[in-house]
Amino acid sequence: MKCINCGAVLTGRTCPFCGTKYNGGTVEADFEEDQYTGTLNVDGKEYQVYISRMEDSIIFVNGGRTADGTFTGNFLKKKRKFTLIEM
What we know:
Layout: E1 27-31, E2 37-42, E3 45-61, E4 64-65, E5 71-72, E6 75-86
Antiparallel strand pairs: 1-2, 2-3, 3-6, 4-5
């Protein structure tokens, strides 16, 4: 996990670089299939949110490209990057 303020790798409950405190709480999200609105629960507090600016990326793990440009890999992993906006 990385610090949300500076991006440093977290090794405990305090960022070793900028000092941001983390309580180690829980984060849960509940979205209906194919919906962009849902509920985000952070340490017992509930927020109605929607997803904005979603980007999909496919990562080839343990692989690369052949000489002709074909992707190869043991398996594909799909990553999603998005912004949650409180309603």
